C-alpha cells in the first residue's frame, strides 16, 4: 500500500472517530491565550516526519485548543456544519488542486461554479438571469458589491445601512473610502425604510437576518427607494439566505429579487464546510468594470470571461465541488428538512424561555436564533454566559440590543436535535440558579 | 461501517488512483467552452443522491474539463503541487470545520497560524519580529499591503512598480483608488532603481520572481530609496519566495528583510494545496489601523488580538493545518531538495534550448522558469504553443517580452523529474518540425 493510501486511511479513521465522539468534548476550547503556541516547537523540523506524527500532535497538542463547531451543542455566533459530502469533496478538491486563474486552467472548476450557483439561485427562489460566483467570505462579497457600486456611480461616496448591518459593510466602506450613513431601526431592530436618506449614496445594504438578532430589513421598501434613487442595493443574507430554500420562509425575503447583488453563505447554514460564500448579481458588467484586468500571460485564444474578472483574487480554489456534493447528497428536500427543524427548535426554545419566570425574550426570532436574557443586570447575564461556556457543555454567545447585554442561542448545526436544545436550557437554568 | 467511513474510503481510493495515473491524462483539458456546463443537469435534485453518484460524475462528467495541475508534465503559469500531507490536512480541516472569527472560536487555528508563519519566516531567512498571517491569494495580500500603506500616509496616492509587476498590484490600486506609476525595466526585465520616482508614493512594489520571466527587482536599492522617502515597500515574492528556503538562492532576495511587507505563496512552490498565501509585515499596527473593527457580538473577556483585525475577511479557514503538515512531513531538507531539483532542471532545459539551432533563450532563468522561443515570427511560436498544448502531452504557457511572443516552461510540480523535462523538449522539437 502506498504511503498516501495508508496515511489517508489513518486520517479518515481519525476524523470519523472525531465526528462520532464530538459530543463528548467541551464545546468551547478551555486553553489560555498562548497555551497552544507554547506547546508547539519554536522551529520547523529539518528532517521529514511521518504523517502519523501530525495526527498524534493533533490529538496531543492542538485538540485542547479547538472549539468544536461540529458539536451539536455549539450554539454560538452562527453555527455551521461541514456535512459528510462537503468534507469528502474538500479532500477531492485538495487532491485535484485545480487553480482557477482562467478558464483553460480548469474549465470544470469554472463551469461547475457557474452551474452550482445557478442551482443555488433556483433553490432560494431568486430570478434569472443572475451572475453567480463564490467568494471566500461575505466580507469579500461586500467589497465586491460596494466596489461595483462605486464604479457605477463614482461621484457618490456614501453607503447607507443600519446600526445592525454587519461590520463587514463598514470594513468594506473603509477600504473603499466611502462614508457610512446609518438609518435608524425600529423596535424589531429592522432598518426603517421611511427614514432612508439615499442622497449621494452609491449603495444601500439591507440585511435579511442580522448577526445580532436575525432581524430582517424591509427589503421591498428599500428596493423601491433604491430604484428611485439609482442606488445599488446589496442584500446581505449571509446567514438567513439559506432559509429561502423553504418556500414558507420566503416572505422574509420579499424584494431581494430586485437587489443589484445578494450574498448568501452556504458555509453557514447549508452544510458546506468553510469557505463558500455565494455572490449573485444582475449587473455583472459593473463587476467587470471594477475588477477586470487581464495581463498578457493570461490572454488565450478561447473567448471566455474568467471568473477572476468579477472580484479581487486571480486564483480560485475548486470550492464549487463541495457545494455540488452537498446540494446533491442532501437534495432540496434534505436541506429543507434541516432548516425547518432548526426553525422549529428555535421556536420551541423561545417558548420555554417565554414561559419561565425570571427570563425574557429580547427580540423576535424569525429564523433559528433566539435572543434572550435573565431579568436583571447585564453583569448577571455576562456572568451566566461565561459560566455556561466554561462548563464546556454548551457554547453560546451574546450581543447588545437596546443597550442591554443579551444572550444568543443560535441553532444551525445539522447534528443538533431537540434533546441538545433541551440540554442547553437545562444548563442555562442550572447555572442561573447558582448566580446569586 | 458508517456512511462517512464507507464514502470516505471510496473518495480516498478514487483520489489515490487519480494521483497514481495522472501522468496518463491529457494535461490541458480538451473541452470546448460550455461543454461541461451542458453535461450537467440544469437543476439540483429534489431528493438526496448517494455520494457514489458524485464520484461517478467526477469521472464521467467533470474529468474531461480538468486541467491536470498535479501532472508532472504541467509546465504552464506557475505549477503548484498539493503534496500528500497537504491534501490529507485539508481533509482534516474540512472535517474539523473551524471558523476563525476570533480567538475563542478556535484558539488552535489562530496560534497554529502564528507559529507556522513564524516557521516559514525562519525557513526563508526573514528576520524577527515579523507579524505573519495567511491570506487566500497574493492578490488579497496586495490589497492588505496597499491598504495599510495608504492608511499610514493618507495624502500620498501613488503606487510605484514596473510594467512587469503582477497585475494584482494594479487591481489592488484600482480598488484603493491609487494611481500606478511605472518605473522602466532593464534588459533583464528588472525594475531600474535609478529611475524610481517615489514622490507622493505611499507604496512601492518590488518583485522577486516576476510572473512573466521570474526577473528579480533590485530589492536592496529599492529599500534604500523607500527608506529615504518614507514609502511602504512591499516585496511580492509570491512564486519565488519559497526558493529562499535554499541559502544558496537567497542572494536574489537581498534587501527584502527591510521590506514593510512580504508576500510568499506556499500554494505555489512549497507543496501546499490551494489556497495558502503568506503575508508578513513588520508594521502590524498599520494593518490594524486599516482593518480592525470589532463589533459588540465579538467582544469577549480575553485580551487577544484576532487575526481578522489584520485584513479584510472576518471568518478564516483552518489553512494553517496544511502548512503545518507540509512543513513537518517534508522538513526543511525535503523542501530544499525539491526546489534545488527544479532549479537544476530549469538550467538543464535552458542549456538544451541554447544549444539547439533555431531556438533562443528570451530571458535569464534565476529560478525554475525558462523563457524561450523559436526563431522567427510570433505567429509561429503561438502556433507551436497551441499544437503542443492540444497534444495533451505537456502544458505550457506564454508571455510577451520585449514585444515578442515567448514560451514559458515553468518547472514546479514536485512530481516532475528529468525525464518529464526531456519529454517536454522532445514534444516541442517534434511539433516545431511540423510547423512549416
Secondary-structure map with pairings?
The structure is a homodimer of 436-residue chains.
Chain A: H1 3-21, H2 35-39, H3 51-62, H4 84-96, H5 107-124, E1 131-135, H6 138-152, E2 158-162, H7 167-175, E3 179-183, E4 201-207, H8 219-229, E5 232-236, E6 261-264, H9 266-269, E7 277-281, H10 284-291, H11 320-355, E8 359-361, E9 369-374, H12 378-391, E10 397-401, E11 404-410, H13 418-433
Parallel strand pairs in A: 2-3, 2-4, 4-5, 5-6
Antiparallel strand pairs in A: 1-7, 6-7, 8-9, 9-11, 10-11
Features:
homodimer, 436 residues, alpha/beta, dopa decarboxylase, N-terminal domain, Aspartate Aminotransferase, domain 2, 2 domains, seven-stranded mixed sheet, four-stranded antiparallel sheet, 13 helices
What does this structure look like?
The structure is a homodimer of 436-residue chains. Chain A has helices spanning 3-21, 35-39, 51-62, 84-96, 107-124, 138-152, 167-175, 219-229, 266-269, 284-291, 320-355, 378-391, 418-433; strands at residues 131-135, 158-162, 179-183, 201-207, 232-236, 261-264, 277-281, 359-361, 369-374, 397-401, 404-410. By secondary structure, chain A is α/β, with parallel strands linked by helices. Chain A has two domains: 3-68, dopa decarboxylase, N-terminal domain (Up-down Bundle); 87-327, Type I PLP-dependent aspartate aminotransferase-like (Major domain) (Aspartate Aminotransferase, domain 2, 3-Layer(aba) Sandwich), CATH 3.40.640.10. In chain A, strands 1-7-6-5-4-2-3 form a seven-stranded mixed sheet, sandwiched between helices. Chain A has a four-stranded antiparallel sheet with strand order 8-9-11-10. In chain A, strand 8 and strand 9 form a beta hairpin. The longest helix of chain A has 36 residues, at 320-355. The mean pLDDT of chain A is 97.
Amino acid at each position: 500500500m502506498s504511503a498516501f493510501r495508508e496515511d489517508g486511511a489513518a486520517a479518515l479513521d481519525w476524523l470519523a472517530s472525531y465526528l462520532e465522539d464530538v459530543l463528548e468534548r467541551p464545546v468551547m476550547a478551555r486553553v489560555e491565550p498562548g497555551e497552544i503556541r507554547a506547546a508547539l516547537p519554536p522551529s520547523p523540523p529539518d528532517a521529514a516526519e511521518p504523517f502519523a506524527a501530525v495526527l498524534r500532535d493533533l490529538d496531543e497538542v492542538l485538540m485542547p485548543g479547538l472549539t468544536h463547531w461540529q458539536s451539536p451543542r455549539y450554539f454560538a455566533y452562527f453555527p455551521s456544519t461541514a456535512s459528510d459530502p462537503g468534507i469528502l469533496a474538500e479532500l477531492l478538491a485538495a487532491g485535484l488542486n485545480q487553480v482557477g486563474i482562467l478558464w483553460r486552467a480548469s474549465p470544470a472548476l469554472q463551469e461547475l461554479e457557474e452551474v452550482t450557483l445557478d442551482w443555488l439561485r433556483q433553490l432560494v427562489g431568486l430570478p434569472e438571469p443572475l451572475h453567480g460566483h463564490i467568494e471566500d467570505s461575505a466580507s469579500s462579497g461586500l467589497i465586491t458589491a460596494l466596489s461595483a457600486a462605486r464604479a457605477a456611480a463614482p461621484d457618490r461616496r456614501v453607503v447607507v445601512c443600519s446600526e445592525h448591518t454587519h461590520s463587514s459593510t463598514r470594513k468594506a466602506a473603509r477600504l473603499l473610502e466611502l462614508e457610512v450613513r446609518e438609518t435608524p431601526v425600529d423596535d424589531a431592530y429592522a432598518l426603517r425604510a421611511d427614514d432612508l436618506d439615499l442622497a449621494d449614496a452609491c449603495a444601500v445594504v439591507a440585511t435579511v437576518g442580522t448577526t445580532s438578532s436575525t432581524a430582517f430589513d424591509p427589503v421591498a421598501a428599500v428596493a423601491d427607494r433604491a430604484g428611485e434613487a439609482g442606488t445599488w442595493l446589496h442584500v446581505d443574507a449571509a446567514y438567513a439566505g439559506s432559509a429561502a430554500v423553504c418556500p414558507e420562509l420566503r416572505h422574509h425575503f420579499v424584494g431581494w429579487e430586485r437587489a443589484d447583488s445578494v450574498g448568501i453563505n452556504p458555509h453557514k447554514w447549508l452544510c458546506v464546510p468553510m469557505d463558500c460564500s455565494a455572490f449573485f448579481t444582475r449587473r455583472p458588467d459593473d463587476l467587470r468594470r471594477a475588477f477586470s484586468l487581464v495581463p498578457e500571460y493570461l490572454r488565450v485564444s478561447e473567448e471566455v470571461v474568467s471568473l477572476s474578472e468579477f472580484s479581487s483574487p486571480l486564483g480560485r480554489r475548486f470550492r464549487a465541488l463541495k457545494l455540488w456534493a452537498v446540494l446533491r447528497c442532501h437534495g432540496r428536500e434534505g436541506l429543507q428538512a434541516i432548516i425547518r427543524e432548526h426553525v422549529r427548535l428555535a421556536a420551541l426554545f423561545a417558548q420555554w424561555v417565554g414561559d419561565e419566570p425570571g427570563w425574557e425574550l429580547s427580540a423576535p426570532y424569525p429564523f433559528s436564533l433566539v435572543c434572550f436574557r435573565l431579568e436583571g443586570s447585564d453583569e448577571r447575564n455576562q456572568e451566566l454566559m461565561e459560566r455556561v461556556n466554561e462548563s464546556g457543555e454548551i457554547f453560546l454567545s451574546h450581543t447588545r440590543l437596546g443597550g442591554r447585554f443579551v444572550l444568543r442561542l443560535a441553532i444551525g448545526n445539522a447534528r443538533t436535535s431537540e434533546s441538545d436544545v433541551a440540554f442547553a436550557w437545562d444548563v442555562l437554568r442550572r447555572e442561573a440558579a447558582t448566580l446569586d
